[in-house]
Amino acid sequence: MKTIEKKLYEGMFLVDSLEATSDWDGITGLITNMIQRSDGEIVTLKKWDDRRLMYNIGGKNRGTYILCYFKAPGPRITEIEKDVQLSERIMRALILSAEAMSEADINRETPLEVAEKLGQPAAQAAAPVAAKPEVPKKETVVPESSLAKATEDEEEIAVPEEMAEEENIEQSKEEEK
Question: What are the φ and ψ backbone dihedral angles of 136, each rounded to 5 degrees?
Fold first, then answer.
């Protein structure tokens, strides 16, 4: 009989905040049972954060995210996903391969744990999203004579790539005539 290797997966489960608060053991037990039924082993399971949802899901506007790392055979992941879809207590779930993650990544503090250390709500403690760095536009060097048709000097100037492309299109149209 062939044994299937168990791989490491990361599961993010979204549940109703009120239900998570009132029945935390029941929710974690449900997730644990789903994974164990599919021949999986829990590595870690912890509350990631409680947040306002971008849009209502099933009439709920807040959700608790539960982060779970577990080992399971790859072909059995579809069974876990099906169990999640059939569950009325889990609103959403995302399961990803975590084979490339280190032990330090798995044990990293959650936004909720950081907030508790700082003594403030998790939403305020979350690290601000860094602004996307502005990437300079690529510039093409075009002889000045191609921009100003009747120039005697052949000085080269830097022109944004979009302008250079427009100029090349116009020149090719003129050459066709």
Answer: -65, 145
The SS3 of residue 152 is coil
Query: What does the pLDDT look like over 17-37, one tens digit per residue?
Result: 999 999 999 999 999 999 999
Are 168 and 98 part of one and the same domain? no
**Strand, coil or helix: what is 130?**
coil
Q: pLDDT tens digit string along 53-77?
A: 999 998 999 999 999 999 999 989 9
Is there a single domain that holds both residue 155 and residue 80? no
Longest pairwise C-alpha distance within the chain: 84
On the CB side of 49, how many CA atoms lie within 13 Å of its CA? 16
My answer on whether 70 and 109 are in the same domain is yes
Based on the fold, state whether residues 103 and 157 are members of the same structural domain.
no
- Joined together, the tokens standing for residue 5 give 């290797």
Q: How many CA atoms lie within 13 A of 127 on its CB side?
A: 7
Interatomic CA distance for residues 113 and 122, integer angstroms: 8
* Terminal Cα-to-Cα distance of the chain (whole angstroms): 76
| Chain centroid offset of residue 31 CA | 22
